[in-house]
Amino acid sequence: MPYFVYVLLCEDGSYYTGSAKNVNFRFKQHAKGYGARYTKIHKPSRVVYVEKFTTHREALRREKAIKSLTRKKKQILVNS
Length: 80
Known about the structure:
By secondary structure, this protein is α+β, with helices and mostly antiparallel strands. The chain has a single domain (3-79), classed as GIY-YIG endonuclease (3-Layer(aba) Sandwich). The protein has helices spanning 23-31, 37-41, 56-67, 71-79, and strands at residues 3-10, 15-20, 44-53. β1 (3-10) and β2 (15-20) form a beta hairpin. It starts with a strand and ends with a helix.
């Protein structure tokens, strides 16, 4: 089963990066306030970026790499 890394745009303009097997289900959880503490405070508005991976390990590595990017580099990634 594939794994996905996703980036959410929050209502305040910030980005949240996570990984999941089902991005749509996970987004709905974030929107309801379940899961990450960050998205409880910074309400997510939409999914703006998704990457697909064959293993959970690959997805976690990519998630960590995206989280380490500056805001400007995340904007470039999202707009690509």
